[in-house]
Design brief:
Strand content: 5-15%
Strand order of the largest sheet: 3-2-1-4-5-6-7
Distance between the termini: 29 Å
Radius of gyration: 17 Å
CATH superfamily: NAD(P)-binding Rossmann-like Domain
Low-confidence stretches: none
CATH architecture: 3-Layer(aba) Sandwich
Shape: globular
Order of helices and strands: EHEHEHEHEHEHHHE
Amino acid sequence: MELNVKAKKVLVTGGSRGIGKAIAEAFIHEGATVGVSARNERDLVTAAKDIGGSYYVCDLSSYDDRERLMETFIREQGTIDILINNAGASIGSTVMNTPVQSFEQAMQINYIAPLHLAKLAASEMETNGGGVIVNVASIYGRESGGNPSYNAAKSALISFTKAFSTEAIAKNIRVCGVAPGAVYHPNEEWTKRVTNDPDFLKSYAKAKIPAGRIGTPPDIASVVLFAASEQATWIVGNTIPVDGGQSRSNI
């Protein structure tokens, strides 16, 4: 199966580790030219050395940083063919224990930033005859679980993906999404859980995931790669769950 992403110019946000890094690696393996962005320059330098792509330091909560990111990527790479809006953050806990400012921050990172970058990318893609935008959401954008600020922001992202797709496809710009379930990679949240309970991953998978294991970044990356490829041209506006059967929604 030919994915036909070779030589495509791909920008992956949140690409310094975890799912984003795996997505970048998957595209590079297929011959794409990839740039990754994140806030932490040290992590970005390490990731770029590991995978061979270029990197861009960017705080996605900043309007100016987002504008600068897209402008710099297009200037250095010549254009943008594929945008992967992967960056995200889980902020706060329960509704009453989470300040309103944290809800606003969650919306900025998980919803407004992808929306803004999608608009910027689409403007460039339109001049080049088309492109693909893949928004990485979450199964918790469709059902309860996780914390409320994250759920609400990812729900908004899924809704935006559907709404923008019908507008963009008329310009040969395909917009779709992927909704991961529980995916393990070393970060503060997962490390804390495993440190407190070495059997956490096994017990969580047994209780929550019919497939019997926690997901891995490559599990998500392979679907994102396919969704962005020429083999997926009829996937328009859909957000695909990739979760080992974890989600309970019928929709």
